[in-house]
Design brief:
Layout: E1 6-10, E2 13-14, E3 20-24, E4 27-32, E5 39-47, E6 53-61, H1 89-104, E7 111-112, E8 124-132, E9 135-141, E10 148-150, H2 159-174, E11 189-196, E12 202-208, H3 216-222, E13 228-233, E14 245-251, E15 255-258, E16 263-266, H4 276-286, E17 297-303, H5 309-315, E18 318-324, H6 328-334, H7 341-349, E19 361-364, H8 372-382, E20 386-391, H9 394-405, E21 411-419, E22 429-436
Parallel strand pairs: 4-6, 7-21, 12-13, 17-18, 17-19, 19-20
Antiparallel strand pairs: 1-5, 2-3, 3-4, 5-6, 8-9, 8-11, 9-10, 11-12, 13-14, 15-16, 20-22, 21-22
The structure holds S-adenosylmethionine.
Length: about 450
């Protein structure tokens, strides 16, 4: 196989970027414009020398997936945020379940999603400043580059956030502010991170590279839409949006989000699951048994607790809840010292009389990289009767499950459920219930 070849292939699955994946002569070809089950004549653009991988584009599609639709978003193709935009919502959800089982061996009893059209659900959104003075746009990095795709009118962001982002781009353009350029490290406005309560109140953190003479003050003075504005500076290379410092510029510095059973406050940079409506269903299940029954007891642990929604749910039925969170803003809101889970568990394991040494339930909702070897080893040593995990990455989840349920593991899986927190994208959140093994 070489660039320029034309092949006829059928896509069997979908890559995380939304390309159809076909296998031809042992080589995995990622084909833009082909959905699973579709066969096409494909021109090969690139063949890897390191591994059996190629990329291509469809020239002629010979059949059409029954769920294929014209992508409703005008930015689709340049903005890579919504890899499943070419499929209707029912087909997206079928595909997510199939991929969980076929690619990751994760069997879920159901995929929980809302009844809406899968739009306007994001209550938290990050954007990158780009363009030029007078023509600022807010968007996201295009795949594998620092080129920015415009996201004006984004269909999955909550309409409150769309309105704020549009106003911010307009005001920054009028003031001829300078967007930061990742390639040469020059410029001022870098990122904007929006959060809404879904009822018209948006807070925005504007991150600038310029620490002293930033246009952020003039921009903030002109913005009408946000209920609160904070400013952070970050001139380091890389895509870390949190910035080194954050100071309030005006208005409120948190939003109150409704999770059905309770409400919680989130500051400008704290972790907020982008879709609180479906996240609320996942949190509800995370603190219960698979059939829905509530758990009660003396001690429970909430690892990677964030702003503490699950901590507060656990406090309703456990006498002592030990919460661990490393991000200072969130840890402060929880009333605990910011700490890494590794350190938190090490302290508990080192002291046989520690209040949290024998928890009846441990829940953990780690970031994308998963728990990792150290935390899995510590959880095996802790040997709790119940361990409930929530994960946004099937890849790291299966690694963790191997460590927790394999030869040296102390647990076995009794159930798993998926949550469609991010419609139009291939992301899915999974809750897995484990119990201690008696052997
Ligand atoms: C996926 S979020 C979950 C937060 C919360 N449970 C929720 O659902 O809103 C992961 C959280 O873990 C925190 N975190 C990341 N690595 C950590 C570590 N090693 N120790 C403690 N907390 C960590 C992050 O700041 C973030 O708040």
């Amino acid at each position: 196989m070489k660039p320029g070849d034309t092949l006829t292939v059928m896509a069997e699955s979908l890559s995380k970027h939304g390309d159809g994946i076909a296998v031809y002569d042992g080589v995995e070809i990622h084909v833009a414009g082909l959905l699973p089950g579709e066969t096409g004549d494909v021109s090969v653009d690139y063949v890897s020398k390191q591994r059996p991988r190629a990329h291509g584009q469809v020239l002629v599609r010979r059949n059409t997936h029954p769920g294929r639709r014209p992508p409703p978003c005008p930015h689709h193709g340049r903005c890579n945020g919504c890899a499943l935009m070419d499929m209707d919502l029912t087909s997206q959800r079928q595909l997510k379940r199939v991929e969980l089982e076929r690619t990751w061996g994760l069997l879920v009893d159901r995929l929980v999603g809302d009844e809406h059209d899968g739009r306007g659900y994001r209550y938290s959104a990050k954007r990158v400043f780009a363009g030029s003075p007078g023509r600022i746009k807010l968007g996201s990095y295009m795949r594998g580059t620092h080129n920015v795709a415009d996201m004006q009118g984004c269909l999955v962001d909550h309409p409150d956030i769309v309105a704020c982002a549009d106003e911010l781009a307009e005001v920054a353009s009028e003031l001829r502010a300078v967007p930061y350029d990742e390639t040469d490290g020059e410029g001022d406005l870098r990122y904007a991170w929006f959060k809404t309560d879904g009822h018209g109140h948006v807070i925005v953190a504007i991150i600038t590279a310029e620490p002293c003479n930033s246009a952020v003050h003039d921009v903030a003075a002109r913005l009408q839409q946000p209920a609160g504005i904070a400013w952070g500076t970050n001139c380091a290379a890389g895509n870390d949006m949190r910035g080194a410092t954050l100071r309030p510029l005006r208005g409120r510095q948190s939003v109150e989000i409704d999770f059905g059973e309770l409400t919680a406050h989130f500051g400008p940079l704290g972790f907020l699951q982008p879709n609180p409506i479906i996240a609320a269903a996942a949190y509800h299940d995370l603190v219960r048994v698979p059939a829905g029954g509530a758990l009660h007891g003396k001690v429970a642990l909430d690892l990677y607790a964030g702003a503490g929604v699950t901590t507060r749910l656990l406090r309703r039925s456990f006498q002592h809840v030990g919460a661990c969170e490393s991000f200072p803003e969130s840890a402060r809101a929880l009333g605990c010292e910011p700490m890494l889970v590794e350190e938190f568990l090490a302290r508990i394991l080192a002291d046989a009389h520690h209040l949290h040494r024998n928890p009846e339930l441990v829940i953990a909702n780690p970031p994308r990289g998963g728990l990792g070897t150290t935390v899995c080893d510590q959880l095996n040593e802790l040997n709790a009767p119940r361990l409930h995990l929530m994960s946004c990455s099937p890849a790291s989840l299966v690694e963790d499950l191997r460590r927790l349920t394999g030869q040296h593991g102390r647990y076995r899986v009794i159930g798993a459920r998926a949550f469609d927190t991010l419609p139009q994208t291939n992301h899915v959140e999974v809750v897995v219930w484990l119990v201690g093994r008696s052997d």
